[in-house]
Amino acid sequence: MEGGATDQSGTGRETRRLVQGLLLWYGLFWICLAIEPVNRRDWLLENLLAVTGLTLLIVTYRRFQFSRLSYCLIALFLTLHAIGAHYTYAEVPFGYWLKDILSLSRNPFDRMVHFAYGGLLAYPFRELLMRVARVQGTWSYYFSVSAILAQSGLFEVIEAIVAVLVSPELGNLYLGTQGDEWDAQKDMAAALAGALLAMSVTFATSRLPNVRTTDISR
User: Residue 137 region, left (φ>0) first, then alpha (ψ -120 to 50), else beta?
Assistant: First the structure.
């Protein structure tokens, strides 16, 4: 028992150090990208949900800690989002480079981040479902993908409402439609594809020897 308690305490310290490091990284990165963004008002709108979500993670940390892998995945997604918020998703330079290389009709960075939303956050969603709601087995994969799709659709609705109420003139810029009337549906499809890929990889790795499926490592 004493050895187990020591291991758990050590794991907790490792997790705290990782979380502190990720917060430091994201905070510094966010501050740098907050300096002279392409469009200040769009930057503010883009950061509403991100800052709200991060604040929620910090406030609830003492009551619920994700695994180290989940925190890394969340930090990576927030980093990608910070880049999109700085440049506006339709004008990220890397996206223009891909557009030219692949001969695309639009800057694909926003679609990539929607794919990353599903690909990076489906695992933390599954962890939350398994540890809080005690969802196990096939249902943990199904509900994780469903949660990503539902969240993606909800965010599209919220973004549209925010764009109309807060700054109607920034609507197209904030939503990043780039003239595509099916942009919202394609964004949701990208998030769904990312979630399906993430859960497929998670399922495949859970079948490997010495990988525990009933308890996600902290």
Answer: left
